[in-house]
Design a protein that fits this description.
Elements lengths: L1 E2 L10 H11 L4 E3 L16 E3 L5 E5 L4 E5 L4 H9 L3 E2 L11 H7 L6 H4 L6 E7 L5 E5 L11 H5 L8 E8 L1 E2 L3 E7 L3 H7 L3 E6 L4 E7 L1 H10 L2 E5 L9 E6 L5 H12 L3 E6 L4 E6 L2 H13 L3 E6 L14 H11 L15
Helix pairs in contact: 8-9
Amino acid sequence: MATASQHDAHLKRPEVDAMIEAVRAGVRVEPHGSRTHAAIGFPVSDPTIVRAPSGVVRHDPADLTVTVFAGTPVAELDAVLDEHGQFVPLDPVDRLATVGGTIAAGLSGIRRLGYGPLRDHVLEVRYVAADGELVKAGGPTVKNVTGYDLVRLLVGSLGTLGLFVTVTLRCRPTPAVRTWWQVGVDGVTALERAFRAVAIVSNRDSTTVGFEGEAADAVALRSRLDVVDEVAAPRLPTRAHRGRISVAPRDIGSVTAALDTELAQRVAWSAEWGVGTVHLGADTGKDLEVARAVAARHGGWMLREAGASDIDPFGVERPHADLQQRVKVAFDPLDRLSPGRFGGLA
């Protein structure tokens, strides 16, 4: 963990100064972006709100890296990279989500099957630590990083370990072909046939396979599938009460069957095959609780993503809670940064 250089001129921004001043004042501080992930975790009681700056700091197309302020909307990042034939597969539920908020929430998008988890795209984070110092974790390239991998620790930390100021991400060249196919097979069969797919997503009515890559590979994959039609990317459930089930990939089919049996049309779901994620949209918070019980019976758990403020956001006793407590105390011994987001820590 290294203190950021005083020569980083781009960090001399009023928003950054306000973040540092709030932390040094000893108050309870919570970072806000677009609030698209606000329902994840417990609320922070009476916090001082801080916001990171927005905008692209630097983009190095040759090195396939981009550095942005944490308050930058993902849609803005997409537009800048698209001009140079590159992209980062962050895939938040809403493109208005900020880059910092997406990484703080730690939720991978529906292309995880092809591109890996969200944490694999983050190379470096500069953040305001609990003592008010600007700290650098990671580095813009893998070769110049030594010591503990603090970046992966910060991904998904919900602002409890540090306040993100800038984030450096690994870019990818825009593929020659991007397409989604509705296929006439179930998710299990599609998974067996779909080599190099970036996603296989099912709901009650259909299974959709996503592909991104070279034209010849698209032709080869399509020949292995029973393609019904070329379609738009699947839309995840958008009902007021939403959750995300995580379960062993082999149990996806039994979980979705149980959801249909116990909740019928009261819950909409989209299942990511090969990943083990089921996205839920429910009519009521009570329906989310039933879905959570279904997940638990199949060895999984459910994270609340939106609505249903009267139910536990996590719903399980986290097996690593003791370790999480020690990490929180080490990073934020006075519990100033987003206190209580994970419950009774620190």
